[in-house]
């Protein structure tokens, strides 16, 4: 599973990445909202951990644009903004969950697992070589999933 951490506090971003990698996740870091949007467009993430107070483009706008693009990626907002209005707005803008800093890492991991469970089975790539196409998701009733 691949996770994008969008956090402008470099020490926190690195600590999150290390912790997630120790749990077996692939973790990338974006330090501002603009970089997060580019990375989310180019890469196929299973989850985005998104701070709201970001340079260039704030986290609510990042979330809004990702959802407007039709992306089903899981989004966990992780922010110091703790007012009820902030939490409601974050969820209404398309976040799957909202967590307030400071936080406990085991709880963050549990929320990551919960979002990833809701996302369903991991997506597998379609492999192509010339006219041959292998689609691991197409394997049904004894067929190989290979087609020409």
Set down the secondary structure blueprint.
Layout: E1 2-6, H1 10-22, E2 26-30, H2 33-42, E3 47-50, H3 59-68, E4 74-79, H4 84-92, E5 97-100, H5 105-118, E6 127-129, E7 132-134, E8 146-147
Parallel strand pairs: 1-2, 1-3, 3-4, 4-5
Antiparallel strand pairs: 6-7, 7-8
Helix pairs in contact: 2-3
How would you portray this structure in words?
It is a single chain. The chain has 148 residues and is α/β, with parallel strands linked by helices. The protein has one domain (2-147): Rossmann fold (3-Layer(aba) Sandwich). Helices cover 38% and strands 22% of the residues. The protein has five helices and eight strands. It has helices at residues 10-22, 33-42, 59-68, 84-92, 105-118; strands at residues 2-6, 26-30, 47-50, 74-79, 97-100, 127-129, 132-134, 146-147. The strands form two sheets. Strands 2-1-3-4-5 form a five-stranded parallel beta sheet, sandwiched between helices. It has a three-stranded antiparallel beta sheet with strand order 6-7-8, with no helix packed on it. Helix 2 runs parallel beside helix 3 (59-68). The protein is globular and about 55 Å long. The two termini are 29 Å apart. The model is unreliable at 139-148 (pLDDT under 50).
